[in-house]
Amino acid sequence: MVTIEKVKEWFLTLSDVYSKNREYLTDLDAAIGDADHGINLDRGFSAVRGEIEKMSSGGTGAESGSGGAGESGYGSSFPEFFRSVSMTLIKTIGGASGALLGTFFLEISRTVKAEKEMDGAKLVSALKAGVEGIKKRGHAQEGDKTMLDTWIPALRAMESEAASGGSVETILAAGLKNAEEGIGSTRSMIARKGRASYLGERSIGHLDPGAVSSYMMIKAAAKTLS
Amino acid sequence: MKKLINSPDSVVKDSLHGMQSAHPDILKIFFDPDFIIRADAPLKGKTAVVSGGGSGHEPMHGGFVGHGMLHGACPGDVFTSPTPDQILAAVKAVDGGAGVLAIVKNYSGDVMNFEMAAELASDEGIKTASVVINDDVAVKDSLYTQGRRGVGATVFAEKICGAASERGYDLKQITDLCQAVNANSRSMGMSLTSCTVPAAGKPTFQIAENEIEIGIGIHGEPGRERIPLKKASEIAGMMMDAITGDLPFKNKDRVILMLNGMGGTPLIELYLLYNEVFKIAASKGIIISRKLVGNYITSLDMQGFSITLLRVNDEMLKLWDDPVLTPALRWGM
Description:
By secondary structure, chain A is mainly alpha-helical.
C-alpha cells in the first residue's frame, strides 16, 4: 500500500537522483536540445525537497509561497500534496519540462483521493491520469521521442499487472522493465516535438533526455512506494 | 564573454528595474513572479492583451506594454519561457472583466506554459483565449515537428490587437483579428554572428568569419543553410524571395514591412538593407503601406536582421495607425 510517507520518500529520493545525474541529463540534452534538463530538474526537485523538509521540521511550508495556492498543502492529504508538488515544479523548473511535469502531478492530484492508503490499482489510475495530462499538454504520442516513450510502455505493463491483481511492488517492477526498454527505443527515433524536432534526422542516435529522467522517476517509485 | 552586466544571474531582474525607473509613467513592474503591466491597468470593460516569452528579445515584449498595445507581459529568464504562475499573475492583474487574449510565439515551452496558465485562469473564472504566432518561413511546417517559429509577426499582432482593444473589440473579435494577422504574416531572419547567453558565457554556435546563417531563429537555432557572406543586395534578395514566395505576396498587395535588427546590427546597415528591400518590393509590385526599421525583436547581441511582411486590409491599417504609447513604439499621442 502507498502511504503519504512513502510518497514523500519518493520525492526525497528523486531529488537525490536528479542531483547525482544533473550533468548526465544535461549532457544528453546538449546533444539534441538546449542543455539544461539536468540543471532544471535538480532545481525543481530540490525545491520540492526543501518544502517537504520544512514541513517535517514543523513549519507550515507556506512562508516561501509567493502568491501560489497549494504550498500549504505539503504534508497533508494525497491531493493537496501532489497539487503542491505541481505548483512548486511549474514555478521552479520552467520551460517545457516545468509545464509537462507540473501537468503530470496536477492531473494525479485531481485523481487521487484524500485517504490514508492507495492500493496498486489506484496508483496505476493516478499515473494514467498523469500520463494522459502529458499527452494533452505536449500534443505528443508514443514514438515522438519524448518522455512518453518511457511512460506509455511502462503504464501498459502496470495496467496489465494491476488487472491481474498485482501488488504495488509487482506493478512497479513490471512498469520499470518496460520503461527501461522504452528509453532504449528513443535512440533510433526522429524527434517530432520540441526543440529537438528542428534537427530532424540528426536527432537519431541520441537518447531522449526526458525519457531517461522519466525512467529515473519510475525507478525511484519502485524503490520507495512498494 | 564581454557584457555590460553585474552578474549573469541577475540580468533579467536588473534590466526590469531599469525599465521601471525609466518608464514609471507607462509601466508597472512586479517581481517574484515577474510581470509588467500598463500603469493604468486593469482597464474596466476592455479586452486585455498579454504576451510573454523568454527575455533576450528586447524591446519585445515589455517594451510594447502601454496605451494601444499590450496590457501585460511576462518575461521569462533569458530564452526560457515564463512559468504558468507568472502568466496567471499577469492575467489577473490586467483582466478588466472582458477577458484576456494571450499572444504566444510558437515554441513548445511557451505554448505549454501559456496553456497551463489559461487552465488555471479558467479555474479562477477568468475568460481567456490565445493565438499562437508562427510566421517564420525558414522552418518547414509539418505535422511531425513543432512547426514554424513565431517571430516578427508578434510585433504586428501586439500593435494591432492592442489598438482593437482600445476601440472596444470583444475577446472573440480580437482573437479572430490576431489569427488574421498571423495568417497574413511571413518572416525570415539571418545572422552574421552568434548571440551569447549571459548564463552560458560563450557563443551559442560557432560560425566562421566569412559565413552567414540564412533562416536563423531568434535563439540562435539553425536556419535553412549556411553560406559564404554575400553583398547586402543579394542577401536581401534571397530573403525577400523566400518570404514573398511563401504566402504568396502578389502584385498590388499592400503590406506593413518590418526591417528588424537582431540586436548587434548598426542602424546604418539596417537602412542600407531597407533600401534593397524597398527596391525588391517595388519590382514585385508589392506596396509598402507602412514600415518599421529598427530593433524590435532581437536575439541579444546577434548581428543580423529579419524581414517581416504583413498583408493588410483597411481595418488592420487603421488599427496600425491608431495612437500607441509604449517604451519602444509610440506615435499619435
